[in-house]
């Protein structure tokens, strides 16, 4: 049986107060009204980093500086497709993010991320961010 596979890149954008940028998918998007890290599908011929910079410009109308390394890779089976979600940390480089496609955005400290209703594929990323913060407080 073949399944639909999609490769999606997402930015974990951190600000100087160590808050993380979270975005709410709109009612008309797939996986409606779930929170996500902004990004989108990698197009043919693109690498994850190039795709993510493009998606952020399109979706949030700002520029980000990406970390050199991938933060986390998640593979998750949704009922109708399998997602390979690549999360990369980022900082704002130029402009402030505007919600051009999302219905809400919020900056949250890692400890509060779990209060949102996340797309299921994002939960391991949320967990890794919380572990990172709590580890650094020990
Ligand atoms: N951008 C983003 N997408 C995510 C995350 N987690 C997650 O499961 N997804 C899913 C939602 C979508 O099905 C897919 C991303 O595709 P997309 O953002 O281009 O949105 P879409 O499917 O509505 O676009 P399209 O098919 O209409 O072109 O990945 C995440 O953190 N960020």
TrEMBL record:
Cofactors demanded by this protein: Mg(2+)
Name of the protein: 8-oxo-dGTP diphosphatase
Statement: the UniProt record of this protein carries the keyword Transmembrane: no
Domain Nudix hydrolase: 4-133
Organism whose genome encodes this protein: Streptohalobacillus salinus
Matching SUPFAM superfamilies: Nudix
Record's catalysed reaction(s): 8-oxo-dGTP + H2O = 8-oxo-dGMP + diphosphate + H(+)
GO molecular function terms noted in the UniProt entry: 8-oxo-7,8-dihydrodeoxyguanosine triphosphate pyrophosphatase activity; 8-oxo-7,8-dihydroguanosine triphosphate pyrophosphatase activity; 8-oxo-dGDP phosphatase activity; 8-oxo-GDP phosphatase activity; metal ion binding
Any one GO biological process: DNA replication
One Pfam family this sequence matches: NUDIX_4
Family: Belongs to the Nudix hydrolase family.
Enzyme Commission no: 3.6.1.55
Taxonomic lineage from the root: Bacteria, Bacillati, Bacillota, Bacilli, Bacillales
Keyword terms, alphabetized: DNA damage, DNA repair, DNA replication, Hydrolase, Magnesium, Metal-binding, Mutator protein
Keyword DNA repair: yes
């Amino acid at each position: 049986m073949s399944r639909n596979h999609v490769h999606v890149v997402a930015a974990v954008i951190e600000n100087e107060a160590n808050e993380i940028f979270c975005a709410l998918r709109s009612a008309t998007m797939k996986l409606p009204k779930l929170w996500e890290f902004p990004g989108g599908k990698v197009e043919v011929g693109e690498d994850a980093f190039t795709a993510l910079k493009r998606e952020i410009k399109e979706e949030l109308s700002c520029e980000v500086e990406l970390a050199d390394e991938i933060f986390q890779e998640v593979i998750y089976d949704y009922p109708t497709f399998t997602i390979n979600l690549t999360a990369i940390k980022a900082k704002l480089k130029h402009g402030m993010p505007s919600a051009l496609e999302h219905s809400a955005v919020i900056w949250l400290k890692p400890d509060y991320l779990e209060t949102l209703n996340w797309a299921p594929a994002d939960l391991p990323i949320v967990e890794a961010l919380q572990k990172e913060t709590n580890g650094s407080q020990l």
